[in-house]
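Subgroup meeting minutes
Present: P.N., E.W., G.H.
Scribe: E.W.

1. P.N. recapped why we're keeping a running log of single-chain structure predictions: easier to compare across weeks, and new members can see raw inputs and outputs side by side.
2. G.H. added today's entry (261 aa).
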Amino acid sequence: MNRLDGRVAIVTGAASGIGRASAKLFAAEGAHVLAVDRAAEVAETVAQIKEADGSAIAVTADASEEADVANMVDRAVREFGTLDVVYANAGISGGGKPFLELDSSDWMNVLKVNLIGVFLAVKHAARVMVPKKKGSIVCTASVAALRSGAGGGPYSASKAGVISLVQTGANFLMGTNVRINAICPGLIETGMTRPLFDFARQRGTQDRIGQLNPLKRYGHPEEIAAMALFLASDEGSYVNGQAIAVDGGLSSSHPVTGRRA
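Output recorded in log:
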């Protein structure tokens, strides 16, 4: 298909899950990929891309640290000549403390990675994309940003912030032809959600995972990667400032959950 033929893309959180699936798909569609993660397993993502005759470089970096983000953008330009796509996907769940037992450090850790890290990606991508008047920035939000019950307090708030950042960012970038959009995944089996899946399998209740959505199943990283590809490519050329749910229909209704303080 070659929908990203010759383009240069950065994917953060690329050591596993959605990030790995997206990096591999971008490369399969012709992109030169800078795969970024603070986990060493990002090298395995690049090895898989190269095994399939794709073009990729592994970078170990923290997507929430400005110096690291600036350096990864500079590395992409230095290695491949430009930057066309950034998928700001890196994120953390923040653990499972009860809401009223959270402290400010719990909030700050999650906000730094999930929200400030996304802003930094937008900021440093824009300095390359705006002068050439073309680019696509894709961000991972969550259905937890749309309604309660799908994540903890800091996680949900951070992802709601990503949606707001995408909306305001699209307007701050008005007239530059740099697009910015968010994907709101539903329940996907990734490194972050693996404990939930492993626990269900141990109990023999894996068939209940994802039963709240109309498709009655959980999603796969490749299904989110497919939306990221659409938004990154020219096929999404008139999509801007949007938060698109890829959740099996979960956000189309209001599942009832009980929560205690």
